[in-house]
Amino acid sequence: MIELYYWPTPNGHKITLLLEEASIDYRIHPVDIGAGEQFKPDFLAFSPNNRMPAIIDRAPADGGEAIGVFESGAILLYLAEKTGQFLPADARHKKVVTEWLFWQVGGLGPMAGQNHHFGTYAPEKIPYAIQRYVNETNRLYGVLNKRLAGREFIAGDAYTIADMACYPWIVPHERQQQDLADFPHLKRWFDAIAQRPATIRAYAKAADFASRPTITEESRKILFGQTAQNIPR
């Protein structure tokens, strides 16, 4: 049993995509990030960066004590290795998958996240910041579009955790001010993943929760006002 600490954000969706694809038994524990549940001491005990998703594996491969994993990229790698699925065994192909996984966690996710922040959540609309992150998101879409030319999936013929990492960050493309028609290879890949039964099931899970936090002054402080001094110790 995998205990998944989750909220329906792009990083949360990454994990339900893999769990559904791999048919792993799991239980969702919602972490309402707009209400500050990510700062509860029991959650911080295994997710010290006060971010979801995080998991607890109650049946680790070594048969020992439960294992907690935080950070979405690390969770994808852990579950892929645990199940022997969606991550090639040979070094050359595994290298490609991990390159593009790290590209997402170090580039596409943070840049699209800043796009979301300045375009949607920031109390003050700063044209330079908005344009900066819209343009960088656009550049990254272009990188992925080029990568997908002549390939079914990011790493080649096989669907992998690299695809699962990237797809949820393309879902809000309209909010990111991106037109998928400008990226035909990316659009073809995106449409194919959207139709996978596991993708449909994963996104149906989100219907049980708020599609996004309600932004009030209080929730804004919770989401965007944390420093080292006011995080629970």
Automatic annotation (TrEMBL):
Phylogenetic placement of the source organism: Bacteria, Pseudomonadati, Pseudomonadota, Gammaproteobacteria, Lysobacterales
List the CDD domains. Answer: GST_C_YfcG_like (cd10291), GST_N_Ure2p_like (cd03048)
Q: Can you tell me which residues the record assigns to a coiled coil?
A: none
Q: Short name of one Pfam family for this protein?
A: GST_N
- Specify the GST N-terminal domain's residue ranges: 1-87
Domain (GST C-terminal) spans 90-214
The record's Gene3D superfamilies line, in alphabetical order, gives: 1.20.1050.10, Glutaredoxin
The entry's protein name is: GST-like protein
Protein family membership: Belongs to the GST superfamily.
Instruction: Supply the source organism for this entry.
Output: Tahibacter aquaticus
Write down the PANTHER family for this protein, in alphabetical order: DISULFIDE-BOND OXIDOREDUCTASE YFCG (PTHR44051:SF19), GLUTATHIONE S-TRANSFERASE-RELATED (PTHR44051)
